[in-house]
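Q: Hi! First time asking for a complex rather than a single chain. Here are the components, and I think there are four in total. Is that enough to go on?
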Amino acid sequence: MARPTISDVSRAAGVSIKTVSRVLNNERYVGAATRARVEAAVAALRFRPSTAARALAGGRSHQIGLLCDNPSPFYIHQMQLGVRDRCVKAGVRMIAQPYDRHGGDVLDEVEALIDTTGIDGLILTPPVSDHDAVLDRLRERDIAFVRVSPRDRPTLSPSVRIDNAAAATAMARHLHDLGHRRIGYVGGDPSFAASAQRLAGFLAVAGDDRWVREGDYSFGAGARAAAELLALADPPTAIFAANDEMAAGVLATAHRLDLAVPGRLSVAGFGDDVIASLVWPPLTTVRQPTRDLGYQAADLLLGDGAEQHRELPFALVARASTGPAF
Amino acid sequence: MARPTISDVSRAAGVSIKTVSRVLNNERYVGAATRARVEAAVAALRFRPSTAARALAGGRSHQIGLLCDNPSPFYIHQMQLGVRDRCVKAGVRMIAQPYDRHGGDVLDEVEALIDTTGIDGLILTPPVSDHDAVLDRLRERDIAFVRVSPRDRPTLSPSVRIDNAAAATAMARHLHDLGHRRIGYVGGDPSFAASAQRLAGFLAVAGDDRWVREGDYSFGAGARAAAELLALADPPTAIFAANDEMAAGVLATAHRLDLAVPGRLSVAGFGDDVIASLVWPPLTTVRQPTRDLGYQAADLLLGDGAEQHRELPFALVARASTGPAF
DNA sequence: TTGTACGCGTTATCAA
DNA sequence: TTGATAACGCGTACAA
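A: Yes, that's all I need. Here is the structure of the assembled complex.
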């Protein structure tokens, strides 16, 4: 039994092809009885319209793209799940496109995606959300897009974000409130907008950058930065890393130096709270609601286009072992 | 400047539309000079064929699906990257479809995927690789598919796998060689074929199942099983968990009981070796070459169909802290 | 409220 | 080795 087509449905329902099409696309001017008969036929034949034919005839492909690369697979996964959920509800297919921000030509990939699939819109996550060449091309080609956590050009497109600076400030203040006065900070990959925002938020509390070190969101970077910080004459009593993976690295170094015990070094992170709860002692983290970012981004892209920007709340998840250290 | 079409290319190259099509599809019977001229025009216009039109006219969509759900986002991510790489090389688009093995109707999702996108083939990862209803439907509809790590029906389709039993045996033997005589085991979600295979491999060395406990691949399951095992009158001196996340859970319990120090409890896992290196002490793991599984699966699907099955090697990554415990 | 005719961009068929 | 023409399955424009 081959795949049914609209004309099969129209025959079964005793109406014209066009009427079936109207029902499928929720157009007005269809009698209730007619609509019911068509819907019954669609269900009976398990008919599903061909994306290819729709794209060719109508100019809409009912597909959207999701461009993702991130140091954390958790981030990518949650983002995919969030976007996917809303796509399913909207009857649109998500084309998740993992890409490599180091190798490869992103601009070319994006154009290939647009040209071959005919996607109706695109969701960009960092760091493509600030890739000017890509953004400009999307504008030229008049492709709708939503950016997740962009740094620049706020009016260019709808976007969703969390307030990274405020989140980092909240964590720094939390550590300060616990009694910490020398707080170390391990920064993230500067190609991500979030990195600078988090650092700024941290400095708003810390004041100076004596205990600030560079990182790149990798475990190794966290471990190395911690080694450097803890070798100082006046080492920090707490270290806040710009993501959970680096925080795990900090913790590994702390273990090596026998400092990973309650009352000694406190370690905090920022992220999806997955790694945070796997390591020991469990990290205190600023939890980023990644899946919600996906929901909101998809909603903005699939919605009526009226709304422009959404900011989501973050959560500070404090855990026992981050208590005062002296 | 709108997207160029074949007819733009044919005009630029001074040949017919059909000839351009021949070049694009690597068909025979195209003169070398003609081919060169067409290729030049394609490059100049940055032409890329529309998937929609190709699918409609030719019956091939140049798209394949990848159906993934897994307790580990690392697994999903690596699998997507592996499959994607080979798809790019083959000029085929990967439609990565994260699905939810608990909620939702997988069979329906698969059919929707096939009907709407017209994919030419499908890669199934556990646990769909053993979902009989899905497999039967794919056969009925004559959709090519490759399974990753299937348990049953070996002749049904090409497949790629690792020898889970041998891997678990290797780890058990490793622990035994280190001097461990009471080795605990935390099993995985029974809906995954790998779980039974790994348990069998473990038992081949361990002999009896006194220290075997059930798990579901979650951190909490590992933590609970470890608490149970370590409360026994004759507790294990090492615990081997069926994945790294449960191993991290075991470790958390060990920390709570002050056993996570060299010379006390040794903990081993199985997985992508990412969590393994984030926790402390670092786990000894059997590393599963997930990205390679993706490469091979895609190669089998996109290849000439001659080869049927491939088995990939695993690696035992031993780390310092898994030494003898007495 | 419903139906008819046409075209979207590509591949398949068949002829040259 | 090349080219003309008819599909593919659906949405759009317009007529009824």
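A: The mean pLDDT of chain B is 92. Let me know if you'd like any chain examined more closely.
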